[in-house]
Write a sequence for this structure.
């Protein structure tokens, strides 16, 4: 199984989550590649069996809009039928950005394997474990 983790991180919290997702993929025996959002695009979607996307909540509970959102919009045509997992951190709000993001993925036909993994600020042990489990589930 060939998997990818694609993320954007401003403070390092979502990057730490991405590392845990990658570890979960590897623990499950998958080949895993990690990309920052600026290094990924829609034309790479077909290369992977499963992809985890990570982005923190920004502004008014939305995806980061200069790098991540444009990249993700470019990937939407490749979401249909693809195993997708979502994760990200937040500092305020109640997770609305993740619910909106999940709905957007479902509308595009993605096979969301579970609810998105979110954590407030830096991932604690529980969030790290949830990220590893997300990676393992994606790799199965």
């Amino acid at each position: 199984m060939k998997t990818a983790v694609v993320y954007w991180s401003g403070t390092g919290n979502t990057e730490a989550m991405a590392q845990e997702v990658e570890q979960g993929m590897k623990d499950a025996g998958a080949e895993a590649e990690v990309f920052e959002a600026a290094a990924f695009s829609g034309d790479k979607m077909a290369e992977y069996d499963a992809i985890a996307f990570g982005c923190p909540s920004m502004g008014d509970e939305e995806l980061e809009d200069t790098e991540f959102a444009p990249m993700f919009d470019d990937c939407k045509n490749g979401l249909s039928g693809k195993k997708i997992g979502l994760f990200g951190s937040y500092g305020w709000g109640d997770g609305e950005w993740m619910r909106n993001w999940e709905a957007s993925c479902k509308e595009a036909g993605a096979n969301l394997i579970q609810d998105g993994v979110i954590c407030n600020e830096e991932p604690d042990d529980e969030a790290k474990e949830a990220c590893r489990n997300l990676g393992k589930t994606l790799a199965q």
The CA atoms of residues 58 and 64 lie 6 Å apart. The radius of gyration is 13 Å.
